[in-house]
From TrEMBL:
<dbReference type="Pfam" id="PF00814">
    <property type="entry name" value="TsaD"/>
</dbReference>
<feature type="domain" description="Gcp-like">
    <location>
        <begin position="24"/>
        <end position="327"/>
    </location>
</feature>
<dbReference type="InterPro" id="IPR022450">
    <property type="entry name" value="TsaD"/>
</dbReference>
<dbReference type="InterPro" id="IPR017861">
    <property type="entry name" value="KAE1/TsaD"/>
</dbReference>
<protein>
    <recommendedName>
        <fullName>N(6)-L-threonylcarbamoyladenine synthase</fullName>
        <ecNumber>2.3.1.234</ecNumber>
    </recommendedName>
</protein>
<comment type="function">
    <text>Required for the formation of a threonylcarbamoyl group on adenosine at position 37 (t(6)A37) in mitochondrial tRNAs that read codons beginning with adenine. Probably involved in the transfer of the threonylcarbamoyl moiety of threonylcarbamoyl-AMP (TC-AMP) to the N6 group of A37. Involved in mitochondrial genome maintenance.</text>
</comment>
<dbReference type="GO" id="GO:0008233">
    <property type="term" value="F:peptidase activity"/>
</dbReference>
<dbReference type="GO" id="GO:0046872">
    <property type="term" value="F:metal ion binding"/>
</dbReference>
<keyword id="KW-0645">Protease</keyword>
<dbReference type="GO" id="GO:0072670">
    <property type="term" value="P:mitochondrial tRNA threonylcarbamoyladenosine modification"/>
</dbReference>
<keyword id="KW-0378">Hydrolase</keyword>
<keyword id="KW-0808">Transferase</keyword>
<comment type="similarity">
    <text>Belongs to the KAE1 / TsaD family.</text>
</comment>
<dbReference type="InterPro" id="IPR043129">
    <property type="entry name" value="ATPase_NBD"/>
</dbReference>
<keyword id="KW-0479">Metal-binding</keyword>
<dbReference type="InterPro" id="IPR000905">
    <property type="entry name" value="Gcp-like_dom"/>
</dbReference>
<dbReference type="GO" id="GO:0006508">
    <property type="term" value="P:proteolysis"/>
</dbReference>
Length: 363
């Protein structure tokens, strides 16, 4: 089976063709960094406008690279939500039209479920249900048990900002560019790079949710560290033009954020075992922040302590891409989970609103 996947939920116009054995036949990902850079953040209408301009060419280029025509595709998968409405609409209209015109099955994909299922792609199927997944991205920070496709138990989520936003905001306070051409990624990637030369002990930071009433809560919080760094900047506790200050601050922030993720994931593992009575097969970490090596390192220690394998998709498949949508499409197609051609986008779509899949009785 070959599925064409389209992703336009935020600021990447992406498409890919993936097979049911997990081979990527082609992928295209057009970032919009340049469009938003001068605004210091994503401007939703500009993002939608860019998707509108680029999606036809991105789809065509992907099919050309795969040396396939629409006739050779078994289904079209497209991100249905959550995300920016104007951006989602563009991809969804493209996907629905392609599917309807070519009489192909249509599969509406939950963007966060696609991040969570990404780790299962591959012929050897290393990742088996149920597993504990830490989803750390620009819009979300959550831990969940993935029981199956469409069946998730969310354990912890952020009370305020996502860890990706925290990386981006702290990088900005430190004077790092929103997009670093040399690092080739967002501010979070630039922060990781500079933290390598830093001394984390120089700027100690408060550990979030470490009080007696929050220490056992598997939720996350990043607003405290963000305002701590903002206050440091106001009080001129560091010089944003001094490279060593930037490096030390980056290392301190990264260490605090990473340790917080580790502590709360440890609680999520305990919750899965003791409250949900679920023996997970492994720990999966996905979403843009999962491309951070310090985060991977810290969570690999936790996984080892719990005798679980740690599985992270390769960095380029942790951030938004078309491959994860095509793969989530394969997972759904295998189970016969198809959608009508008139589905709409869903802007806010909590993962645990998805209903466990019950195969239809054959008559
Ligand atoms: P969501 O999936 O929640 O809708 P999104 O799709 O915008 O959000 P992703 O593309 O999964 O988010 O991830 C983007 C985030 O990942 C950004 O906040 C970016 O700074 C962060 N990020 C990317 N690379 C790194 C890195 N190496 N270290 C830390 N953060 C990183
Ligand atoms: Fe994402």
């Amino acid at each position: 089976m070959r599925v064409l996947g389209l992703e336009t939920s935020c600021d990447d116009t992406a498409a890919a063709v993936v097979t049911s054995d997990g081979s990527i036949l082609a992928e295209t990902n057009l970032h919009q960094h340049k469009v938003h850079e001068k605004h210091g953040g994503i401007v939703p209408l500009l993002a939608a406008d860019r998707h509108l301009q680029k999606i036809p060419l991105v789809v065509r280029e992907t099919l050309e690279k795969a040396e396939l025509r629409m006739e050779d595709i078994d289904a079209v998968a497209v991100t249905r939500g959550p995300g920016l409405p104007a951006s989602l609409v563009v991809g969804l209209a493209a996907g629905k039209t392609l599917a309807a015109v070519h009489a192909k099955p249509l599969i509406g994909v939950h963007h966060m479920e696609a991040h969570a299922l990404m780790a299962r792609m591959g012929a050897e199927q290393k990742v088996r249900f149920p597993y504990l997944c830490l989803l750390i991205s620009g819009g979300h920070t959550l831990s969940l048990v993935v029981h199956d496709v469409n069946h998730h138990s969310v354990i912890g989520q952020t009370r305020d900002e996502s860890v990706g936003v925290a990386f981006d905001r702290v990088a900005r306070e430190m004077g790092l560019p929103w997009i670093d051409a040399q690092v080739g990624g967002g501010a979070g990637a630039a922060l990781e790079q500079i933290a390598r030369d830093g001394n984390a002990a120089r700027f100690p930071m408060p550990m979030p949710m470490n009080q007696s009433n929050t220490a056992r809560d598997p939720g996350f919080s990043f607003s405290g560290i963000m305002s701590h760094v903002a206050r440091m900047r106001e009080q001129r506790a560091f010089d944003p033009t001094c490279r060593q200050d930037q490096a030390d601050l980056a290392a301190a922030f990264q260490q605090t954020a990473t340790t917080h993720l580790q502590k709360k994931t440890a609680l999520a593992l305990a919750h899965a075992a003791n409250v949900l009575n679920t023996r997970v097969t492994c720990l999966v970490v996905s979403g843009g922040v999962a491309s951070n090596q310090a985060v991977r390192q810290c969570l690999s220690i936790l996984a080892r302590r719990n005798h679980l394998p740690l599985i992270c998709p390769p960095p380029r498949l942790c951030t938004d891409n078309g491959v994860m949508i095509a793969w989530a499409g394969i997972e759904r197609l295998r189970r016969g989970m198809l959608d009508p051609y008139d589905i709409d986008f869903i802007q806010r779509w909590p993962l645990d609103q998805l209903k466990p899949y019950a195969p239809r009785e054959s008559s």
